[in-house]
Amino acid sequence: MSKGLSKVAYRPVGILAGIAAGAIAGAIFRQVWKLTAGDGDAPNPVDEDRRWGEILAAAALQGAIFSVVRAAVDRGGAVGVRRLTGRWPD
């Protein structure tokens, strides 16, 4: 199979994977925040009742979780495309 075809095959996988990664990361973040902060709701950056440290810690945790989940989902999608097409998507 041509390299271009594996790239085309990965495009819809990548789009769906991105949507799934966002949903998964959001769910994981909410659970981790609930466990670590003891608060059901993550702080909103414009909530004047929340402290800077809490806002920045939540943002850093959310970003880290999203990045890890996105990398895992993207890598899994690329591996799946290679198994289907025999080529690694670029």
What does this entry look like structurally?
- This protein is an all-alpha fold.
- The chain has helices spanning 3-37, 52-85.
- The longest helix is centred in the first third of the chain and has 35 residues, at 3-37.
Q: How many strand elements?
A: 0
Rg (CA only):
18 Å
Tell me, briefly, the overall form: elongated
How many distinct domains? 1
The helix tally amounts to 2
Return the average pLDDT rounded to an integer: 86
- The portion of residues assigned to helices is over 70%
Question: Which regions have little confidence, pLDDT < 50, spanning 5+ residues?
Answer: none
Structural class: mainly alpha
Strand composition percent: under 5%
Order of helices and strands: HH
**How many strands, which pairing sense, and closed or not: the largest β-sheet?**
none
What is the first-to-last residue Cα distance? 14 Å
Features:
2 helices, elongated, single chain, mainly alpha, 77% helix
Question: What's the topology here?
Answer:
Blueprint: H1 3-37, H2 52-85
Helix pairs in contact: 1-2
Short description:
The chain has 90 residues and is mostly helical. It contains 2 helices and no strands.
